[in-house]
Structures are given as structure tokens and as C-alpha cells.
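[step 3/7] fold_predict: job queued, chain A
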Amino acid sequence: MSPQFEQIWDDLRGAWRFRWAALSAAAVIALLGWLVVFALPDRYEATTSVFVDKRTALQPALQGLIVEQDVDAQLNFVRQSLLAGPQLLRVAREGGLFPDGTDPRQQELLLADLGKRIAINVRSASGQEEDRGTAGSLYTIVYQDGNRARSLRIAQILLDMLVNETLGGKRAGSENVQQFLETQIADYEKRLRTAEDRLAAFKSRHMGLMPTEQGGYFAQLQKESEAVSDVKTKLAEAESRRAALTRQLHGDVAIAAAAPQAGAQGGASGAAGTDTLSRIAEAQEHLDELLLKYTDKHPDVIAARQTLDELKRRREVEIESLKRGDASAAAASRASSNPVYQSVQLALNQTDVDIADLNVELQQHEAKVAELRRYLDTAPQVEAEFAQLNRDYDVNKAQYTALLADLQKARLGERADTAGSVRFDIVQPPKADFRPVWPQRLSMLATVLMAALAAGAALAYGLHRLQPVASSAASLAELAGAPVLGVVTVAFPERARDALRRDVLHLSLAVGCLVVAFGLAVGLSLAGYRLSIPTSTHEARS
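[step 4/7] structure written:
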């Protein structure tokens, strides 16, 4: 036999001496432990769950039209507030957890215990946390209490508060937003009116110096200067064109227009003309008729020649006058009836009209440039102040318009909340099993029995170590420090074996009684028997 095994065997034989003390201790511990297990109050668990869906039929239609509120944040706030603070006190009072005469210290203890027995869990309805925003959230409320009916009642209170406080919080948040926006709108409306008044007063003080659609002061000055240069260029071109037309009209065109035309003499014979050219033709014709009758020395022929010469000299004077631009000479020489002369004259007249218009336009632009140059020192400063006033006005107007839009969104969001922009569906109403979830008495009773037996065995071993004996020659030699020369056996071995059998039988009967007691405890537990102890809240938990 190995030394280790011999040591164990010696310890067992030494501990056997204290078997009844160990069994008595185990019985006492088991009975006390079972009494404690039966005294433990039952705890029933009520559970309920609600599905929160933000993706209702209104959501797509209201996208971008309302002030978005974070429903998850509101739910999380309500969830945290239900576990502490005034909301938890409200739950305790509505659930009847405060009996009459409860002092503040007891209330505080009860609230702390209540908060530990409430659990509000949230998860995605699809099982994937990243899909919570689209798939919706599933909130589960778990509450444990010693009274099943009360656990159901408090679970229902928690469920109602989770739903109502969330919706109420959204409405309260929307109302707070609206009040804030209305205050800001009134403030910006005053600012906008002040800016409008300043702008109107500034315009009235600096009439004529305001920037126009054509731009500011320097833009207008540059534009007018460019217009003056452009008009001068056009005027120079028109004057050049007029000079060319004048040269044509008083030069070759005038001579060509004053020259006799084919058929003019024939026409003159039919009707007497009043112009010099017609009269020359008539005088020539008359002279030709006289020469057919008379000689060159005839007085009538001489007189006719003198008249013809006189008319020719007059014609030469008319042509010179025509070249100088004499209108009467043009009529007398029949040049005004020439189509070419008429077209050149019309072009010249149109050019004169254009030159007159350009001169008027040039005077206007030069006057505008002179006027703008007079304000060279003051106009830029006025323009800068006007731009600043406009900028302030535009900023206030933009902010005012944005606040009005936000207010409309907030009001629309409040009406959307009333219409059901967020849906709460009760997946499971409050439910509690008729069997308590704690304590697990059967397993606890068995654990107490095993712990009692282990404690008894430990007691026997401890007493053996305190009062050791030598149960073998080896242990005696070890204790005495000297070799054992011989061993005397039991004188009556049969009697010793009979005594051992009786001890084992008695011990087995005692252990059997303990096991029977365990079975009785299990039966009483299954039958629902409990050990009632008055609690500090003057309630008896059954």
C-alpha cells in the first residue's frame, strides 16, 4: 500500500471517531438551511414588450417637412428616468409599494430595491443592431416582485409610462421648440424692422447716390466714360460720312445731275420750262428756227444769240452755286429732280440727323460723367455704408425666414405626432408565470443537504486533526519517532466486526432519516408551503 493511501486511510479511521458529532452538525445545518430556504420570499417575474416603429406611413410624406426629433434618444431618456428619480417614485406610489407610515428612509430603501428589480432592455426587431433605425426597436420590460398581481400591475404601469412619457416628451419637446422659435422670431422681426427703417432713412438722405441695377459708383462711372468714348467714335464716323456725302453732292454728282438728260429738249418743246436748262434749250431751238429764215446779221438772230449766251452764263453761275451747295441753284438747275442727287441728298440729311442725335447723346453722357465725378469723394463711402446696411438687412431677413420655416415644421411635426408619426405596438402585454422565478427551492434544498454533509465531514476531519490517534503501526512509528517492533491484534476480532457493523447501520439509519427529511422538505416545497416572516414594511410575503 502506498504511503499516500495509508495516510488517507488513517485520516478516515481517525475521523470515524467523530461520526456522530459530524452527523449531528450536518443535521442541524441542513435543518437550519432548509428553514432559511423556506423563509426566502417568492419572487414572481412579469414581462411585457412593445414594438416601436418610426417608419410609419406618415414618415416618407413628412420627410424634410418637419423638425426631426430623435425618438431613440427620447426613449432612452424615458428608460433611464423610469429606473431612478421622480418617475421611479411615481411607479412605487401607483404600484402600492409604500404602505402607510413609511418614513423617508424606508422609502429610499424601497426605491433602491425597486430599481434593482426593474430591467428595461432594447434590441432591434430584426435581431441586427445596425438595422434598428429601419427595422424598429423592441423594448422588453421585466419586473420581479413577491406578489404576482403586484408584479403585473407595476409592469403595466412601466409600459404605460414608457409609451406615454415618450409621446409626451416629444410633444413637450415640440412645444418647447415652438416657444423658443416664436421668441426668436419676435426678436428677429424687431431687428428686421429696425434694419428696414435704417435702410429707408439712408436712401432718403443719399438720394441719387445709391447703386443701381447697372452696378455701383465706379461701375457707373466706367460705363458712362466708355459710353462717351463710344459716342465720340460714332460721331467721328458720322461726320466723316457727312463730309464724304457733301463732297459727292457738291462735286461730280452735282455736275452729273445738272447735265442735260436725254430727251430733255424734246420735252421742253412741248411745254415751256422755267429752269435755266429748259430755257437754254428753248433759246437754242428758237435760234435754230431764226437761222432757217434769216442770216446771222439779222437783228432777231443777234438778239436770240445774246439771250442764249446770257442763259449759258447763268447756267455756269448756277453750276458754281450748285457746287457750293446752294439749294436754289439745285432747283434752278433741275439737279434736285435727279434720282442720284436725291439719294445722296437723303443720305446726307440722314447723316445730319444722326450727327445731331449723337451730339445730344454725347452731351448726356458727358453730363452724367461730370455729375459722377463731383461725387468722387462721397459716393464710395455712401456705397460702402449702403452695402453694409443691405448686408445686415439680408442677414436678418434670411434668419427670420429660416425661423419661420422651422416654426412651421415644428407645428407640422406636432400635428404629425398626434396623427401617429411613431407607432407603439404592444407585442406582449404584462405576463407572469404562476410559479416564482426565484428562489429555485429544489436545487437550493439539495445544495443545503450537500453543504451540510460536507460541513459534517469537515468537522470530523478537523476534530481528528485536533485529537490525532495512531491507527496503524506506520503512523505510530511516525508519531513516536521510533521503529515499531511488533503489533498486537484485537483479542476478539468478531466482536469488533459486529460493533463496526452496528455503527455503520446506525449511521446509515441516521443518514437515511436526514435523506427522508430532505424528501419531506422537497414535498413541502412542491406543495407550496412557505415559512412566513413579517417584513420591515409590515407585509407578510406568502
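[step 5/7] annotate
Residues 217-374 form one domain.
The beta strands are 44-53, 118-124, 137-145, 423-432.
exit 0
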